[in-house]
Write a structure and sequence with these properties.
Layout: H1 2-21, H2 23-52, H3 57-60, H4 66-71, H5 77-82, H6 95-113, H7 121-149, H8 156-174, H9 176-185, H10 187-204, H11 216-226, H12 235-265, H13 274-280, H14 282-305, H15 320-332, H16 334-343, H17 346-356, H18 359-375, H19 380-408, H20 411-433, H21 437-445, H22 448-453, H23 461-490, H24 497-526, H25 528-560
Helix pairs in contact: 2-7, 2-8, 2-10, 6-7, 6-10, 7-24, 8-9, 8-19, 8-23, 9-10, 12-14, 12-15, 14-16, 14-24, 17-24, 17-25, 18-24, 19-20, 19-23, 20-23, 20-25, 21-23, 24-25
Subcellular location: Membrane
Pfam families: Acatn (PF13000)
Transmembrane segments: 27-51, 57-76, 97-115, 121-145, 166-185, 191-208, 241-261, 281-302, 347-372, 384-406, 413-430, 466-487, 499-519, 531-551
Length: 574
């Protein structure tokens, strides 16, 4: 038994070494960096530049619209799965979107560096808006590329971990390091430098590998032709479902576009509030574009399973309007039908995990700085050191540890351990909220306080307890994040990876947005300590759901006769 365990351990280390040596892993690190850099520059560092340029806060509020591109990116994810860009399809199904978006982002950042924000704010905001949509589009394609190219050597677990490492590094480069560089050479030169980095990544990305197997450009056409084969749903039934789903999606997209037009053209006092829009209208957009279409997809899947409304023989090829409807059905409805049909009632459990697993850190991010600066009364320099430099290093260390755990003990075990650790770190903050005596004693005992006191200028015992608290939290977030992205990537189909992953990840983002209002009210009424106790219980509840999902996956694999270790392939539903 011990010999078998040792052999498995050696095999895991060998697999890890092979994965890290694969060229896909190197490009994944590069793409992760390219994915995180625009987000940091458009939603963080940009506001520092606008503040120095003395742009008023009311006008800067328009730039908060940029966040909508990331929050609702799933609305155009079907285009990424279906549409080929003329003259670029030879690059590959995903690269035809990734490379142009990276080059466009590089050109936008360089152009912005040539503008003066205060006097050319119109062009400045237009470029930032286009850049945000290009960045969100790049994210959709990169996430799909990661899922598509994963194999037994460069597994989805390792690729997901490396992707997040690149993403976190870019947040450091575009955030804290960007501020330092701008203080020395100026904002225009800083943005020109960042634009040059993205142009370089886009150029290098031309050599990134594509998915192996069936030619990528033929996959969509084959799926459309298969819709009219014997045993598939009758086109009349499909078209009715498509009409309902299309109407729901068109309405959602229309509402988002109307909101953006009002925000860009109305007088400042008449503009709608972006936060209120996300909180009040966001859930209905999710209902219209995910929940109701999923119910329709479930009905279609059940009809097919029961043998109802099916073609008895192959239908002849079609053209014109019928051909267009088949392609639209493939892009918009078929990804949901496949997902719901494969997962069945297990989808309820999966959505429960998606909605709860990352809720603690998704909500907490908004209140972190008010807690550090207001409640605990630390300085900006203290927080920058603890969260931006030391904290980012701790997250990267957590990601590395998470990647190792994924390889050695498996995806679900790592997902469970990461969830429990992330939940328990809320207790560390609860201690900080009532004075931090326990964290201070621990920091003193392990010698961490002495090390921080050696930092010239700001190092002291109080900074040590904040730093070690953030370090533990970020280490846990790194482990949980590595496992969560790997798990989320593993449950989607490679055939529809762009749409399915974008839909699931959007739920993770939205639940954090919706919970912030309630959490903020609780902080005001009861204080931070009670909030941290509550978020601990929420995190532990998510861990219980992970245990149930682990049991479900084990049963599914046993029923399917799968005994091999997790390799990132999709798990068949019961």
């Amino acid at each position: 038994m011990a010999e078998a365990a040792e052999t498995k351990k050696i095999s895991a280390w060998r697999a890890l070494g092979m994965a890290l040596g694969d060229r896909k892993t190197g490009f994944m690190l590069l793409f992760g960096f390219a994915s995180g850099l625009p987000f940091a520059l458009f939603l963080g560092t940009l506001f520092a530049w606008l503040t120095e340029a003395e742009v008023d806060l009311e006008t800067m509020g328009i730039f908060s619209l940029i966040g909508l591109a990331y929050a609702f990116q799933f609305l155009w994810s079907p285009l990424i799965d279906k549409v080929n860009i003329p003259m670029l399809r030879k690059l590959g199904r995903r690269k035809q979107w990734i490379v142009p978006m990276q080059l466009l982002l590089g050109a936008i950042l360089i152009t912005m560096s040539l503008l003066e924000p205060r006097t050319q704010l119109g062009w400045f905001s237009l470029l930032a808006g286009i850049g945000a949509f290009a960045s969100a589009t790049q994210d959709i394609a990169i996430n799909a590329w990661r899922i598509d190219v994963a194999d037994e050597r460069a597994t989805i677990d390792i690729l997901s971990t490396v992707y997040q490492m690149g993403y976190r590094l870019s947040s450091l480069v575009g955030g804290a390091l960007g501020l330092i560089i701008a203080a020395r050479i100026g904002w225009p030169q800083t943005y020109m430098m960042m634009g040059g980095i993205l142009l370089f990544v886009g150029f290098v990305g031309l050599w990134a590998p594509n998915a192996s197997g069936v030619a990528e450009e033929n996959q969509g056409d084959e799926q459309v032709r298969a819709l009219r084969m014997a045993g598939e749903l009758n086109p009349h039934i499909r078209n009715r479902a498509l009409a309902l789903v299309g109407l729901l999606w068109a309405g959602a997209i229309g509402i988002v576009l109307a909101f953006m037009v009002m925000s860009m053209t109305y007088a400042p006092e008449d503009r709608p509030n972006p936060t209120e829009f996300t909180v009040n209208v966001g859930p209905w957009i999710i209902v219209a574009t995910i929940i109701l279409p999923a119910l329709i997809a479930g009905w279609l899947a059940s009809q097919k399973k029961q043998g109802k409304h099916l073609l008895r023989e192959d239908a002849p090829p079609v053209s014109g309007g019928s051909y267009a409807l088949d392609h639209l059905y493939r892009a918009l409805v078929l990804p949901l039908v496949e997902f719901v049909g494969r997962m069945g009632w297990s989808l309820v459990l999966i959505l429960a995990v998606v909605l709860t697993y990352r809720i603690c850190d998704a909500i907490w991010g908004t209140f972190a700085y008010p807690f550090y600066l207001g409640e605990l009364e630390y300085t900006n320099d203290d927080v920058a050191f603890a969260s931006k430099f030391f904290g980012v290093g701790a997250i990267i260390a957590g990601l590395a540890l998470g990647g190792l755990m994924l390889t050695t003990i498996g995806r679900m075990a790592t997902l469970l351990i990461g969830g429990i650790l992330a939940a328990l770190t809320n207790l560390l903050y609860a201690d900080m909220a009532i004075g931090g005596a326990n964290m201070q004693a621990f920091s003193d005992a392990v010698g961490f306080t002495y090390l921080i006191e050696q930092v010239p200028g700001i190092g002291d015992a109080e900074l040590a307890r904040l730093t070690i608290t953030i370090a533990f939290e970020n280490l846990a977030i790194g482990i949980a994040g590595a496992a969560y992205i790997a798990w989320l990537s593993s449950i989607v189909s490679k055939k529809f990876s762009a749409v399915q992953y974008a839909l699931l990840s959007s739920l993770t983002l939205l639940v954090g947005t919706l919970g912030r209002g309630a959490l903020g009210e609780m902080i005001e009424n009861q204080g931070y300590y009670d909030v941290f106790i509550l978020t601990t219980w929420i995190g532990l509840g998510a861990a219980v759901l992970v245990c149930i999902e682990w049991w479900r996956e084990s049963r599914s694999k046993a029923a399917a006769g799968i005994v091999a270790p997790e390799t990132g392939e999709t798990v068949p539903a019961e």
